[in-house]
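Sequence only, no structure available. Ideas?
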Amino acid sequence: MIAAGLKVLWLARRSYAPGETVEPHFHDFYHFIYIVKPGGSIEIQKKRYGADQDVLFTAAKNTSHGIFPDGRLVMRTLEFKAIVTDAQLSRELPDLPVRIEDASSNVKVTLENLIEEGVNRRKHYRDLINVKFAELLIHLIRGAESGGAEADRGRNTEDMAPEKPGAKVSFAPVLEYMRANISKCMELEELSSILNMHPSYFCRLFQYEFGTPPIQYLLQLRIQYARSLLLDTRLTISEIAYRVGFQSIHYFSRYFHKKEHLSPVQYREKYQDEHSYIVLEKDGYNLSGTLQEVQALMRSPSRGTP
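Reply:
I predicted one. Tokens follow.
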């Protein structure tokens, strides 16, 4: 197995019914909780935080944490549990904020893609999940050090070719426009005009910042939104296709299948109203359980005492 500095033990899409609480507990690995659909609160170290949409919560190892959906709404999350083996990463991860806003949706896209890797279990999927998750955490650490919520890519100003020496281009208006107009057709020229840039220059900067061209990024957002609609609504496949910006249901179905390896109908049947858990490395770790269960495990001879 490729050394990535960590091992992802467990990853999941979860749906919490109203009132379906996870009581405060702790364990000797990290637990990352990304809020896809809000509704309730997250407790970490006896402090409650609103479970707001597009927010990542980090619970360090041996840190008490719990999940408290409210009494009216279903809360949906993406969750990862991991042990850290790299010494430097172990020193730096505790400095991550407990609550990280994902304004650009980069974190969500990455986590969704890693869960799909776990579901499909293609060659080297464990290695890919570990490496990509470690990369995500490093970007978050960089972002925290620079005082921003988003990941700092660590690129120099010459490579980024900013409009002014030392200036950093903010793509937030473009990303907001994409999400607000997800059902509409969008051209590169339209997106580049938001920042008053030439399309080719805009495309180069965007790809350098996000690792993918703007139109491809937009397609990822469309598929991401389609996943949510398939799980959270009873809209027909045709209605979902048009709502996320595909003018042809046939093209939508083909593209969705290419990305998810399931048709939209199969995806809905497989994941709606159920949790999607992928256990990668159990290795003696108790990957769920109440505070009492984890304490009992930690006291057992095979694991030693805390």
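Residues 6-152+275-299 form a domain with the Jelly Rolls fold (CATH 2.60.120.10).
Hope that gets you unstuck.
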